[in-house]
Amino acid sequence: SSGINAEYGIEERVENGHLTEKVLYVRETRVTNVIAHILIGCSILMIPYPLNVIPVPVLYALFVYLAITSLGEFQMWERFCLIFMEQSLYPHNHYVRKVPQKIIHCFTTLQVIQLGVLCVISFAGTANLKIFFPFV
Questions:
Q1: Distances (CA, A) of 52 to 82, 92, 107
Q2: Which of 20, 89, 108, 135 is placed for a possible disulfide with 79 were both Cys, Cβ 3.0 to 4.6 Å?
Q3: pTM of the shown model
Q4: DSSP alpha helix (H) spans, the chain
Q5: C-alpha–C-alpha distance, residues 105 and 111, integer Å
Q6: What does the pLDDT profile of the chain (136 residues) look like in tens digits?
Q7: Distance of CA 68 to the CA centre of its chain
């Protein structure tokens, strides 16, 4: 599935030596997103009392769980895993078929370095370093 507003299924066929794609179904997901955001907004009502009852480590564990479960849909994570994968086992994604392996790995490495720099700057204790954040 791909896209922000819809999920769709694509069937890939090889006909006469050419790869063709056929859309099988489209499932709109806007209602689900709206309901999820309304429920997140309603969590503001929990701020005075019920949220204080939940231990902070439980909330941290929830956020870590949400982060780990969403990694599968994160393209940078997919490309990071490709670095350690044999090329014959690569998934048949559009960027894997059209972009050379070396370019994919260089781009992914650059993104990982940038993510590391941003994490170092954001977790740094000095305010002077954080001043340069918009320029990094």
A1: 42, 47, 43
A2: 108
A3: 0.52
A4: 30-42, 50-53, 56-69, 75-83, 94-98, 101-123, 127-130
A5: 10
A6: 444 445 777 888 887 777 888 888 777 667 777 888 888 888 777 777 777 788 889 888 988 998 888 887 788 888 888 888 888 888 777 778 788 889 989 999 999 999 898 888 777 766 666 676 665 5
A7: 10
